[in-house]
Amino acid sequence: MRAFWKPAAMCLAAFSGFALAAAPAGAQQWPTRPVTVIVPFAAGGNTDVAARIFADRLSQRLGQQFVIENKSGAGGSIGIGAMAKAAPDGYTLGVVTAGTLFILPHIYKQKLGYDGMKDIRPVAMVGTQPNMLIVHPSIPAKTVPEFIAYIKANPDKLSYGTSGIGTSQHLCMELIVQHTGAKIAHVPYRASNQIIQDLLGGQIHMTCDQFSTAYPQVKAGKANAIAVSSLERYDFDKSIPALAESIPGLEVTWAAVFITPRDVPEAIRTKLAAELIAITKEPAIIEKLKGLTVTPTSLSGAELEKKVLDDFNKWKPIVERANIPQP
User: Fold this and answer.
1) Residues ≥6 apart with Cβ < 8 Å to 228
2) Where along the chain do its domains lie?
3) Residue 25 — pLDDT band, cuts 50, 70, 90?
4) Which ranges of 63-117 does DSSP label H, i.e. alpha helix?
5) pTM of this prediction?
């Protein structure tokens, strides 16, 4: 048996060595031409800015251009759908928010045009931050309890803006509505900068936008901060309370996640993930992300896929309770 096993093992080892040598060859050479990185939101938003920071470094490290292409609309589903249908050769990637991975599928369902759990795979989560609930200065509320009392006392008189149905801004406000029973009109936009313009102009009354978008308005005295949407106060300004202090368990965070079509070769995905994780640890990149009030994050592989699946399951009943009409 030993005489049989040894040659067989040697043959198997030789074959495996050949296979391993052949399989990663494409990955070792990848990329040999420019790579398109689809951002499913308008240019200038948080996801777009973060994507460009990483695309620039990927271009420098790998010797090929990583070109951002903005395909906004339908809460990000148009851009994700385009990426999901691209050839699975590693030359079309995406950068999305975590919410677009596990919230949109529960809202758009068969209209989504792709299966979020079957057609795409996350590669690396590279940055996170909470959302911040801010209000127009005309709203006479400074604390979460005061805010809750005000919105409950003014049904159908107030409105909030978001980047679209199913975004983190939308679900943040939906959780507040579910907790309070308040009636507030939802006004979807195509980009965060449009939300802020209308908030400052008084066309809408509030938003639960990403920290990096909302915080400058608060520092400039143009809007009032009510709370952040993380479980604890955010390190960038711990004077701002967490919504969870008044609404236990409420947590909605923005995250930048690189994704690929499902069938991109694992060797390419592994190489891309390694590059992205390495970039998150570069001092210059850490400073750039902190300049956006984004916390650098290094999450990939099985740990990331488990998080996406867990969050996908977590948000399903929340979306169902929200009774969001299918667009």
Assistant:
1) 130, 131, 132, 133, 211, 234, 240, 241, 242, 243
2) 34-129+254-322, 130-245
3) low
4) 77-84, 98-102, 104-108
5) 0.83
pLDDT in tens, 281-310: 999 999 999 999 999 999 999 999 999 999
Contacts (Cβ under 8 Å, ≥6 apart) of 110: none
CATH of 34-129+254-322, one of 3.40.190.150, 3.40.50.300, 3.20.80.10, 3.30.540.10: 3.40.190.150
Task: For 182-205, write each residue's pLDDT tens digit.
Answer: 999 999 987 778 999 999 999 999
Residue position matching structure tokens 């801010």: 134
Q: Which residue type does 229 have?
A: S
Tell me, yes or no, if the two domains 34-129+254-322 and 130-245 fold the same way: yes
Compute, in degrees rounded to 10, the torsion defined by CA atoms 90, 94, 98, 104: -110
According to the model, what pLDDT value does residue 121 have?
Answer: 94
In words, the CATH class of domain 130-245 is alpha beta
pLDDT at position 327 is 62
Q: Output the CA–CA distances (angstroms, integers) from residue 225 to 116, 211, 234, 324, in the order listed.
A: 34, 10, 13, 27
Supply 16's token pair.
């495996």
